[in-house]
Write a structure and sequence with these properties.
The chain is of the alpha+beta class. Helices cover 22% and strands 43% of the residues.
Length: 129
């Protein structure tokens, strides 16, 4: 497992994009067609910062903005994914699954506390065997 990305929710997408591209040196790249505006910014060919628009009505649901929304860990193997699911089930941890549009990936979200979300992401083929 390795850290996959951090998501930053902000009401000023363009300012955040300019900072991460012009100052930090990340590159703007492809992003799945989610129902909310944003950018994926890449380092070394991987999207490491996800910027998400915080101004969509109802998107913050009482959560402060701007904020770092969640951290994500990538799991690259079927055995590791199944072991994670077994540990979550054994600990009676509630989680949500979601598919990434057009990416053939599956996301698993765990809300540790209000405003603290951990995501695990894997290729769909690792989740459906």
């Amino acid at each position: 497992m390795h850290l996959d990305h951090a998501t930053v929710v902000t009401p000023d997408l363009e300012r955040a994009r300019r900072f991460f591209v012009d100052v930090v040196g990340l590159a703007e790249g492809a992003r799945p067609p989610f129902g909310i505006g944003g950018y994926w910014l890449y380092a070394g060919g991987r999207p490491v910062i996800h910027l998400v628009n915080a101004t969509v009505p109802g998107s913050s649901a009482g959560r402060p903005a701007p904020r770092i929304d969640h951290i994500a860990f990538r799991i690259d193997g079927l055995d590791e994914w199944q072991a994670l699911l077994a540990r979550l089930d054994a600990a009676q941890t509630v989680y949500q699954l979601a598919e990434v549009p057009l990416a053939d990936e599956l996301q698993l979200f765990v809300a540790l506390a209000p405003g603290v979300v951990i995501e695990f992401v894997t290729a769909r083929r690792h989740a459906h065997h």
